[in-house]
Amino acid sequence: MPSIACLFPGQGAQFVGMGAKPIEANPRARALFDRAAEVLGYDLLELCLKGPEGRLNATDVAQPALFVCSLAALEVWRETSPSEYDACSFAAGLSLGEYTAITMAGGLSFEEGLRVVQVRGRAMQAAAEANPSGMTSVLIVPREDVQQLCDECRLPGETLQIANLLCPGNTVVAGHKPSLAKLAERTDLKIVQLAVAGAFHTSLMASAVEELRAALSSAKLERPRIPIVSNVDAAPHDDPEEIRDLLIRQVESPVRWEDSMRKLVDLGVEKMVEVGPGRVLAGLMKRIDRKFPFENVEG
Q1: How far is Cα 243 from Cα 245, in angstroms, rounded to an integer?
Q2: Measured between alpha carbons, how far is 259 from 54 in angstroms, rounded to an integer?
Q3: Which residue, 92, 142, 143, 287, could crosslink 229 as a Cys pair with Cβ 3.0–4.6 Å?
Q4: Cα 292 to chain center, whole Å?
Q5: Is 201 a catalytic residue?
Q6: Is 260 a known active-site residue?
Q7: What are phi and psi of 140, to 5 degrees?
Q8: What's the chain look like in SS3?
Q9: What's the confidence (pLDDT) of residue 69?
Q10: Smallest Cα–Cα separation from 275: which of 33, 27, 21?
């Protein structure tokens, strides 16, 4: 059996109707939503299945929803492909998905992980509302040139910085809306504005850090059974205190996804499995290494 890395999606992968297939396929998947309702205080499954879309897309709901739906999909994969599940030697997740990866690996219990994710989503939503900001994908431009674009388009007193290093030709920048508008005026660029509440993974999320720090400090974080490749430094970690610190830093740090995938290949991973809603991670991997073995377990 080849060495496998289990990957989990982040915010943006959500869609109305997600969760339907896992709960039909596996009673343990449905049970996760019952447990989630007790932790969150509302019917998460109803929102996942029926929306409304605007509420599901809100940061404070989307993050818990993706966490639970991805772990529900994991229950299906664990039952249908036990040998592959047992062959997982590393786990990683894009932004919010890193919490799912840690929970999958036993670093957090389901309830503890969900509570922290709920705090994270609320804190990031509040930070976004306090600072009118957003995120934009800059396409085709080499990543080493994107920083210069940020420097050229950043207005005085504003923030505009790299937030996600996703794959070759797709770097996300984030910051205040006027600076993003100046970037959008560049006719020599191909850009896509992202439908998110604010400038995640930048200094504009500073107000969310202390709230998240408190939630993580009170959470029981165990040594995961497999290493977690961190968004912050694209390196594997299994020390609970290192993981806790990296999760706090992650809120304001760029997501080094491309570097993380290349690190997994360097570590000997021979196949990657995306577990959860959508196929965002599969699309990114095609841009990183089109021929690398990749599978999706739908959430």
Answers
A1: 5
A2: 32
A3: 92
A4: 21
A5: yes
A6: no
A7: 75, -35
A8: CCCEEEEECCCCCCCCCCCHHHHHHCHHHHHHHHHHHHHHCCCHHHHHHHCCHHHHHCHHHHHHHHHHHHHHHHHHHHHHCHHHHHCEEEEEECCCHHHHHHHHCCCCCHHHHHHHHHHHHHHHHHHHHHCCEEEEEEECCCHHHHHHHHHHHCCCCCCEEEEEEEECCEEEEEEEHHHHHHHHCCCCCEEEECCCCCCCCCHHHHHHHHHHHHHHHHCCCCCCCCCEECCCCCCEECCHHHHHHHHHHHCCCCEEHHHHHHHHHHCCCCEEEEEECCCHHHHHHHHHCCCCCEEEEEC
A9: 98
A10: 21
pLDDT in the model for residue 298 = 87
**One of 70, 95, 230, 253 is an active-site residue; which one?**
95
How far, rounded to the nearest angstrom, does the alpha carbon of residue 102 sit from its chain's CA centroid?
A: 12
pLDDT in the model for residue 187: 85
Question: What is residue 165's predicted lDDT score, i.e. its pLDDT?
Answer: 98
Note the pLDDT of residue 214. 97
Nearest of 119, 93, 102, 100 to residue 212 by alpha carbon: 119
- What backbone phi and psi angles, to 5 degrees, belong to 53? -60, -40
Cα separation, 78 vs 101, in Å, equals 14
- Active-site option among 133, 201, 230, 253: 201
| pLDDT computed for residue 35 by the predictor | 98
Structural contact between residues 229 and 264, judged by C-beta atoms closer than 8 angstroms: yes
Q: Is 141 exposed, middle or buried (0-12, 13-18, 19+ CB in 10 A)?
A: middle
Q: What is the pLDDT of residue 2?
A: 83
pLDDT beneath 70: ranges in the chain: none
Tokens found for residue 238: 């299994």
